[in-house]
Write a structure and sequence with these properties.
- By secondary structure, the protein is an alpha+beta fold.
- It contains 16 helices and 19 strands.
- It is globular, with a radius of gyration of 23 Å.
């Protein structure tokens, strides 16, 4: 029997306190409105459990009554995994599971609950002279559970890896309410399948992560940061190879940014360009971590070698924290600035690092041939091959008409280039509901069968985030 919205609300209120259940559509607004405003379904209710035991009780009830549950962290996801698809689901917010349970600097581990805001995890590590190195533009609102469920990347993947690589173990509630107690701080544990890796990146389709053991690292003494002028992505790749040779594991970030990003940010008074960079077709934002006991100047020395080899034409070295922040603002505002220019078509893709220049060159050529006047804005993590291949509408175009005419077709054009170069159509944002059909087209059929078998085994009634990832 299918429960009505009123029955769902009544029964949820019997499991948790009444103020932990939201049923009024207006009050649910913040939980339903995702960042890109692409998905517009309501929910039967929002429930905000106060502790892990309440999460277990809710899932036992949902499994028995076949009520669909959508786990939600900070609602910052960009592919719709955290919002309703059908309109009758219950959103389970992890906002109250917000404790840092422990920090062990000797083991290099912090145990954080899934509702901890990412920025607060940074602060907890910083308080013990350590660092949790996963940094995102949305770190002020993204929560640990969502970051792990989407296997988020961020700007430090080059040096520290993505969310999965930064996770040592997880605690999670399964679809039937059982608690998987997989928190650990072991560097080596060869006792079977790595179940943690199933849950990290599963977008809440296999279980609800309630806590995680996260790797923390000694806090750097300082950072050396530079914004470097490069002629094109090919030149940036050559520079990256030199930086990696000269700097090794100290190379923390290598971000590629086109000049149009500077133009847009200046036009909308988002950046003081005179204090950020000189004119260049492209820029590379390069950062080196300097640990205690190491001499400063490694980045400057590497850049001098690049000048001697005529790889670069200019570079601005940060000489203060304000300089460093301004350079990173330039990078982190790349998505936001496009919204000020009207409609944009966005892709989160990756290819082998050596193929990044070809991806950008061929993708721009194909897009401009298909849509004259379109403005390519590709940027991102050249150091790990993840490019946000975005396009802003032509100047003066009608936003709705532009999206109606070009959005779907442009995806096909860019994905064809990506796949031809052995890449992925989702590098760090996930599948959600946006890319379900695409995944079926590009994923190995045997891999899809294995994924469905795992989903059926762990969630036989299909109550966890139905319609997402696998459809």
């Amino acid at each position: 029997m299918t429960l009505s919205a009123r029955e769902i609300s009544t029964q949820l209120s019997a499991l948790v306190s009444g103020d932990a259940v939201i049923t009024d559509t207006n009050d649910m607004g913040a939980y339903l409105k995702e960042p890109r405003k692409r998905f517009h379904q309501s929910a039967a209710a929002v429930v905000i459990p106060p502790d892990v035991a309440a999460v277990q009780a809710i899932l036992r009830w949902a499994n028995e009554n076949r009520v669909a549950i959508i786990p939600q962290g900070g609602n910052t996801g960009l592919v719709g995994a955290q919002v309703p698809l059908y309109g009758h689901e219950v959103i389970l917010s992890t906002a109250k599971l917000n404790a840092i349970r422990s920090v062990d600097t000797a083991a290099g581990v912090m145990v954080a609950e899934s509702g901890v805001i990412l920025e607060n995890a940074h602060k907890a590590a910083d308080a013990v002279n350590s660092m949790f190195p996963l940094w995102l533009a949305s770190q002020g609102s993204a929560r640990i559970g969502g970051v792990l469920s989407s296997n988020a990347g961020g700007v430090n993947v080059l040096a520290y890896g993505n969310a999965r690589e930064l996770t040592m173990g997880v605690e999670a509630v399964l679809a039937d309410g059982r608690l998987y107690q997989g928190l650990n701080a072991l560097k080596k544990d060869n006792t079977g399948y790595d179940l943690k890796d199933l849950l990290v990146g599963a977008e809440g389709t296999l279980g609800i992560i309630t806590a995680a053991s996260l790797k923390i690292f000694p806090k750097p003494e300082d950072h050396e940061t530079a914004l470097v002028n490069v002629a094109d992505p090919e030149a940036a790749l050559v520079l990256f190879q030199l930086m990696r040779e000269r700097l090794g594991s100290r190379l923390n970030a290598f971000e590629l940014i086109p000049h149009i990003g500077l133009e847009i940010q200046m036009r909308h008074a988002m950046l003081d360009a005179d204090r950020t960079a000189s004119h260049s077709p492209w820029y590379a934002l390069v950062e080196v971590t300097r640990m205690a006991g190491t001499e400063p100047g490694a980045l400057q020395s590497a850049l001098e070698a690049a000048f001697e080899r005529e790889m670069i034409s200019d570079a601005a070295l940060a000489t203060s924290l304000a300089d460093r922040n301004r350079m990173w603002d330039f990078r982190e505002q790349m998505s936001e600035c496009q919204s000020k220019e009207g409609a944009s078509i966005k892709h989160d893709v990756s290819v082998p690092i050596a193929a990044v220049p070809a991806l950008i060159r061929e993708g721009i050529a194909a897009a401009e041939k298909f849509a004259p006047g379109i403005r390519p804005v590709p940027f991102g993590h050249l150091g790990d091959g993840n490019i946000h291949f975005n396009f802003s509408m032509p100047v003066g175009a009608d936003p709705k008409a532009f999206m109606a005419q070009y959005d779907e077709a442009m995806h096909g054009i860019i994905y064809e280039v990506v796949l031809r170069h052995g890449g992925s159509v989702s590098a760090e944002h996930g599948i959600g509901q946006l890319k379900v059909d695409l995944l079926k087209q590009v994923k190995d059929p045997v891999a899809l069968e294995m994924m469905r078998a795992i989903k059926t085994a762990l969630d036989p009634n299909g109550i966890l985030n139905p319609g997402k990832m696998l459809g």
